[in-house]
Amino acid sequence: MLNLNLNWLRTFEAVARLSGFTAASQELGLSQTAVSLQIKALETKLGHDLFIRRAKSIKLTEIGKAYLPSVRNTLETLTISTNGLFGPDLKSTIVVRASMALIIWLAPKLGEFKMLHPQIGLKFVTTIWQESIDTQNVDVDIILAPNSNTIANLEKLSEEFIVPICSSEIAENINSIADLEMVTPIHILGFDDHWTRYMAEFGLQHEVKLTRLMVDTSVAACELVANNLGRAIVIERFAISAMSTGQNINITGDRIPLKQSHYLVKKDVTKERKSTVLIFNEWLRTQFLKQG
């Protein structure tokens, strides 16, 4: 495989596009001699002439014409990939880690934030992939933790409540909390005791053995519920968020305290991003206060 210098390829594309060494040298910020030498080096490496040189003009050879589209595609792909991964100004882009459900809850509100702070970039990562992203800095970390938590670096954003949800079709046959036991329960991993706790609040017992469907996020649970596959119990704000988007979901019982809250983890951030993080955190607090 040929080991080609990327600068030679960029120079080749510029000369071909601009039809001349002089114009290419001006665009690339190189001397005309440097451009000529790079093209000659590329031709020597490839073993073929890429241009027909005339006194006052140049044009591509047939093999040069055939080679140009591949070079352009390669350079464009590299540019898109580079801009996508490294293009944003890292000093004004903050990484926010939260559950998938919370990110979806925040999504409709982000338009307001971007309008107020267009200079701030946001990169969201989910807690599902926490282990794989521990190598990158997380500027804003939002977690769900028990209310009894006494860790000093946690700031409570809101207390949460849980509610049962069913599809509209199933909800038509639910006249009491007891009727929920007739519907297949959907279990969300990590929320193992929610159904037991909810039913006990009304003096009822949850049959754990009935569980046949399990998912690892509230978002997935809502999708299964919307498709008439059973009942689930989720945090109230996430149920309301799903319903507001038109999902086939109904809340089919009173809410009860979850005895857990969303917390903002106080983190040390770089000096360059500190003011940006403070702006986002203040906006975040406001969103929870609006829909507490």
How would you describe this structure to a colleague?
- The chain has 11 helices and 11 strands.
- The chain is an alpha/beta fold and 292 residues long.
- Strands 3, 4, 5, 6, 9, 10 and 11 form a 7-stranded mixed β-sheet that branches. Strands 1-2 form a two-stranded antiparallel ribbon.
- A hairpin with a 4-residue loop joins strand 1 (51-53) and strand 2.
- Helix 1 crosses helix 4 and helix 2 (21-28) crosses helix 3 (32-46).
- The longest helix has 25 residues, at 62-86.
Entry summary:
With 292 residues, the protein is α/β, with parallel strands linked by helices. 43% of the residues lie in helices and 21% in strands. Strands 3, 4, 5, 6, 9, 10 and 11 form a seven-stranded mixed β-sheet that branches.
Oligomer: single chain
Helical stretch tally: 11
The rounded distance between the terminal residues' Cα atoms is 61 Å
Q: Give the biggest beta sheet.
A: 7 strands, mixed
Shape: elongated
Mean pLDDT: 86
What proportion of the residues is helical, as a percent range? 40-55%
C-alpha-based Rg, rounded: 29 Å
How many runs of DSSP E, i.e. beta strands?
A: 11
Regions with pLDDT < 50 over 5+ consecutive residues? 129-135
Order of helices and strands: HHHEEHEHHEEEHEHEHEHEEH
**SS strand fraction:** 15-25%
Give me the secondary-structure category.
alpha/beta
